[in-house]
Write a structure and sequence with these properties.
This protein has ten helices and 13 strands. With 328 residues, it is α+β, with helices and mostly antiparallel strands. Helix 2 runs parallel beside helix 6. The N and C termini lie far apart (49 Å). The structure holds adenosine-5'-diphosphate (ADP) and magnesium ion (MG). The site of adenosine-5'-diphosphate has 13 residues, from helix 1, strand 4 and strand 5.
Amino acid sequence: MALGEFELIDRFFRQPAEAARIARGDVVLGIGDDGAVLDLPAGRQLVAVLDTLVEGRHFPPGSPPESIGHRALAVNLSDLAAMGAEPAWFLLSLSLPEVDAAFLERFADGLLTLAAGHRIALVGGDTTAGSLTVSVTALGLVDAPRVLHRAGARAGDLLYVSGSPGDATAGLSLAMGEEAPGIDAAQRQWLLDRFHFPTPRVQLGQALAGLASACIDVSDGLAADAGKLAHASGCGVCIETDRLPLSVALRAHSGALATQRALCGGDDYELCFTVPPERADELASRLADVQCAVTCIGRIEPGTAVRALAGGVPVPFALHGHDHFPAR
Ligand code: ADP
Ligand code: MG
């Protein structure tokens, strides 16, 4: 049975998202009208983010549909997390080469399962024919004085990263068919999942709100994104590579290249942030309830350099993170 645009939206997106819309209680009008109407709580500010995934550019052709749905929202939740915001609502722009019900079922499942876990409601979108492209606009809420941003770090601040950077880039290599004889099945699955199903650090971002002096999410590579944070703050940064929290799976997969993967690999969706040393104890107490590991990996420095050191010796690395339009 051919499925029209209206039936497609209703079956795969409006109906499955309805419970979440009602549960929030602040979506006056959701999917079905010309625009969504949302109730803003008094005294809070809106944080708006948008990220697009293009097949063949942000994920390999033939990726599991659940992963495409999950990642489309996860990358946006990660941006909200980096601002210290609480996720509230999102819009979905979907460009599809064809109406494939089996694909849509699995895509919507990946998308809406992650949404339900973060109480973020799908309130609208757009559906067109075209090459597979998924764009999400997410809206979050923050108490104005507690918002996090990239500028704000000072020389001497401690630099932290969540989770284990570098896994996702190894997972992507595996997803693209790389043979990796050195890893077992569980390690292989861990790395693949770290690419296909990144965990946006939303709870951590909110715990850091009002405490971290600066924060960024790591999408282009840890060194590049720490460098952006430092640059926005008018400082330099030094990463001590011996302190990088490399996963067992990444070490097994990448061996001597694990440090480079952690510094330069993309798609981690971890948070990289800074805290003044005198507030490190406060960080520890705030982290008590947060379900992800956080590791101190270096410091903000005077100047503008982005450096990596191993036992005091400079570690060379390529600073450039991913750039869609690299200068020639
Ligand atoms: P319009 O022609 O006014 O742009 P559409 O027919 O594109 O409206 O969309 C109808 C309704 O369905 C709108 O409320 C829109 O926000 C919603 N919508 C369209 N595509 C999606 C989608 N992929 N996910 C969620 N909501 C969608
Ligand atoms: Mg439209």
